[in-house]
Design goal:
The complex is a heterotetramer.
Chain A lengths: L4 H18 L4 H22 L23 H32 L4 H6 L3
Helix pairs in contact in A: 1-2, 2-3
Chain C lengths: L1 H21 L3 H21 L3 H33 L1
Chain D lengths: L2 H25 L9 H12 L5 H9 L1 H21 L6 E3 L6 E2 L1 H23 L8 H12 L1 H5 L2 H7 L2 H24 L24 H29 E3 L4
Antiparallel strand pairs in D: 1-3
Helix pairs in contact in D: 2-3, 3-4, 3-10, 4-9, 4-10, 5-6, 6-10, 9-10
Chain lengths: 116, 150, 83, 246
Amino acid sequence: MTDVLPYLVAVWIFLVGCYGLATSRNLIHAVGCLSVCQSATYVLLLAVGYRDGATAPVFSDLEPGARPVVDPVVQALALTDVVVGATVTALLLALVIQVSKRHGTVDPDELSELRG
Amino acid sequence: MNGWLLAATVVLGGGLGATLWGVATGPLRRRVVAQNLSTAPACTGLILLAQGYDRPAYVDLALVLALLGPVGTLVFARLLTDELADDPPRARGVTWAAAALAAAVVLALCVAVGPSRATAKLLLVGALLIGGNVIASRALSGGIAGVRGG
Amino acid sequence: MADAVIVVALLLVAGSATVAVLVRDPVRQALVLAVLGVVLAVLFTAVQAPDVALSQLAVGGALTPLLLLLAVRKVKRRKGRER
Amino acid sequence: MNPRTRLGLVAVGGTGLAVLLVAASLRLPDFGGDSHPYGDRAVRESLARHTANTIASVNFDQRAFDTLGEMTILFAAVVGCVVLLRQTRDEHRARPEPADVAPPVRRYALIVLPIALATGLYVIAHGQLSPGGGFQGGVVAATALHLLSLGADYRALERIRPVGLYEVGDAVSASAYVVTGLAGLVGGTAFLANTLLPYGTFNTLSSGGTVPLLNAAVGMEVACAVVVLLARFLDQAVEIEEESGK
């Protein structure tokens, strides 16, 4: 079971995030659901790079070659993704603030009724 | 059978499970306290994992969490003063219990690691964690009163 | 034994992600997202990715909740006066 | 499109996506498998360049060009936020009155602020040795700087955090990354190639050739970017109000 559980958890988080995004009645809540969707990608990426009984390929306190190591490439991808994701969340929140300034509401349903 | 990993699993499963349930249900007052309490078991678990995996480099993670956890709670305390003003959170007992657990684990690890630079770092993490938790729960229960401005 | 930590962390992450979505109020969601950030950092440490855990701690623990709460405060301050 | 039909559409689309994703994940190699071709080559390449933290080597040496792309995304997001959250004509700044913070909280903020800043800079500096790097250290340092606004009050933060300086710092460090890359071209090798500086002895601060330089540039850029972001958001949430007091 545990050899497919991480992938299923990543799929579950992604689907739950999409459900929240689609049925959200507040744009700020929707931005939160989007960051939940993003964390699904980190879980999947790191689950792909894991190796049983291995440790992190950081050799500051480890003799190189002494122990098996996990895949560093996926970690580098996930690492930058986390920080860029935060700034994109900030940009989306800035847009939500602008929407609330111009239209006075952050409920997507009310927004779609306001033409222009 | 690595005892440290078993202890980490118990601390993480129990502590974070309880705080997750606390943050998911109940009045806002209790949710904020639960968020504050999520730092202690997580930091303790990280230290135990660092010892269980025999990687002293992982203690940096616990150090950053011990620093930024209380900052997150201060954010909530500062920005939610209006909502929390009516019934300020009372969490004396639970905060001290979490701090005592953290202190016990840090001392056990210091004994296991033995006198060295790593022990000094562990003590620093323990001190920051306990101090941060107590101050953050103090800030939550009315430490930042009457904030209109920033 | 190492798998036990990973399984526990995975279940915690799945649980907190579900709670983060089902909670409809943005302020309460910011609280759950802070806990989700910490739980994700623990999972990344269990999967031997300390660098990613460090950045998740810094971003998910303090930065994202602060941004969410500031946005809620700005939107609430505007709407508060219209009524 | 009333909510009922929308929920139905989400259910249908979601189920289809779920079936496909689960089928895909069942066919993925088992979790914890042993075949990681890219990982083994990346570790060998990183050790050849005497970089102890392989992830920093992948980020700033083997994939330095991609990190340049990610850094420009980060820079563009910050520029977008600065433009969107500017103070428009029909708004004025209302000075927030100082918050009265309990003395122990204020003392805690003033004690932990230097420790957190030192930790942030330590995480950046040891990026190519122990876990950490420019991205994480930048965020830790920037969040620590705002501890003062949480512990004391917003005006205390504004006194020690001139936003203009951090906007310039953001731009300077972003260009420093590119200039370090161009130095590779001038030195006769490829853009962002790690062939200019000696690789130094393993597991020391100066090891890894240009990795520490790029690391420091990204660390400074992320720290300045987060400070500018938080400054704009704090201004909006705390100070700026519409003209009619609305």
